[in-house]
Amino acid sequence: MSGRVFQRSWFYRILLMLLMLSMVAVSCSAPPATDEAAEPAQEAETVEEEEAVAPAEEDVTASDEPVELTITTWTSDETQLGIFNEIAEEYKIDHPNVSVSFTSIPFGDYVSKVTIQLAGSDPPDAGWIVDSTAPTFINAGVLVDLGPTLESFPGYDLTDFADGPMKLWTRDDAVYGVPFSTSPYIIYYNRDLFAEAGMDTPDVLLANGEWTWDALREASKAISDATASTVYGFQSFGGDIFGSRLWQTMGPLMKAFGGQAWNDEGTQCTINSPEAVAAFEFMHAMTFEDGSAVPPGEIGDFFAGNAGMTIAMIGRTSLLADAAFEWDVISLPSGPAGYNPIVGQAAFVVFKTGQHSDVAADFIAFMTTSENVEKYSLYFPPARRSIIYSEDFLHSNSLVTPESMELAIANSIESGTVEVVHPEYPKIDLAAHGEIDKIWQPDADIQVILDAACDAIQPFMLP
Q1: What is the per-residue DSSP string for 282-345?
Q2: Are residue 321 and residue 455 in the same domain, yes or no?
Q3: What CATH number should be reported for the domain holding residue 173?
Q4: Measuring CA to CA, which residue among 27, 461, 22 is closest to residue 248?
Q5: Which residues, including other chains, have CB under 8 Å from residue 115's CB and lie 6 or more apart?
Q6: Adjacent-strand bridge partners of 351
Q7: What's the pTM?
Q8: What pLDDT was estimated at residue 58?
Q9: What is the number of structural domains in the chain?
Q10: Helix, strand, or coil here: 165?
Q11: Does one domain contain both 270 and 158?
């Protein structure tokens, strides 16, 4: 099958699904390291192996043939683009025939516009994709296996990447993406409110081996009681556990309790398992029994000083530059299933339909060496161990101490995994919300509701 016929075949089969994701549940804002990261995945169609093979290209990495690479991103930040352009100029020193341009597409339009470009006459050579879209692009067979290029690139050291953050982007020995931004879910806490409630702060609890979800709940209730309920002890991710941000709070909580919404293979709904039910019961009790978690219809803004704790990502520190209270960050608590940190990611990928995928793969390898990753690590937390534990990285955020950067960020990246994603996410999300929304009332029967949610979800599980 020709490359052009392949493009059309793939495009028409997944364009609608890609558009669904951009409309249904996008929690990311560019850039992922400075704002929110990714949600579970979107829909995919598996393309047969023989369809997914693009025509072989001539290797022009060492030739004099002019090459113009186009790389799509969703950042428009001039400082970040400036760093990328500087790296491109450094690449040009040894590859004078190669020019690189970074094309910025707003995040809300990114998936649909890149999809259209890939099916057109002038597709990009490489780009960013967020973790939630990884199954779609990988299963569609449109991404180049970067493994051979990375393995052979001088001094690259692919083993420097933490195992958990790399898992999403690999299939056996194939590597379909190189994560450049790996931002863990962390807990922000208000030190002043902990002091007012007479509670040990999370860093003290962690040092004593007592930083658990039960401890978070106890502190949350104490803060609410000490402030006569004018301040909530806990705010969910984005303050919207009852809407589109459900998974950002309940995903990590289910993981801590040993559960998840579906199995790793994506073939079986498990959101009604005893472990997942226990996680929902825990949050329900904080909301309606303790009165310490922000309930439906109420507003609790941690960043304005109106909540004791919240789940967010490291980029939210910028909202606290002028905070009128003392605050800090810490890793997610341990639960009955132990310590299970969750990260959100975005990765560089190379598209098979691009005109110069071999050169693009070589450039992405250059772009993600430890030396170059360090240059943009201030904006995008990396997955390279050599960087996340370096003094420069631990001192890179002027609002967070090096000690807290290690506890909350470096350790979480080292041990973290991407939340379980699914290629049928838009349908799953719509079906699940119809039932799960019923949980957020005082007399909810959570087991019955999650049984019904599984009945609604199961038809969209993979065969």
Answers
A1: HHHHHHHTS--BPPTT----GGGT-EEEEEE-GGGGGGGTT-SS-EEEEEPPBBTTB---EEEE
A2: yes
A3: 3.40.190.10
A4: 27
A5: 11, 14, 15, 18, 19
A6: 143
A7: 0.84
A8: 45
A9: 2
A10: helix
A11: no
pLDDT at position 14 is 52
pLDDT digits 0-9 by tens, 399-425? 999 999 999 999 999 999 988 788 888
Q: What 3-state DSSP class applies to 234?
A: strand
- Band of residue 40 on the pLDDT scale cut at 50, 70, 90: very low
Residues 172 and 221 in one domain: no
> DSSP of 106-146, one letter per residue?
-HHHHHHHHHHHHTSSS--SEEEEEGGGHHHHHHHT-B---
Which range is least confidently modeled, 162-176, 281-295, 412-426, 447-461? 412-426
Please tell me whether residue 262 adopts helix, strand or coil conformation. strand
Domain range for 403: 3-184+343-418
| Predicted confidence (pLDDT) per residue in 157-175, tens digit | 999 999 999 999 999 999 9
The residue assigned the tokens 């073939």 is 267
Is pLDDT at 42 greater than 90 in this prediction?
no
Distance in angstroms (rounded) separating the CA atoms of residues 46 and 135: 10
3-state secondary structure of 102: strand
Enter the tokens of residue 26: 């996008």
Residues 303 and 402 in one domain: no
440, 310: one domain: yes
Residue type at 273?
S
Nearest to 21 by CA among 168, 93, 181, 129: 129
| Same domain (yes/no): 258, 272 | yes
Mean pLDDT of 73-97: 97
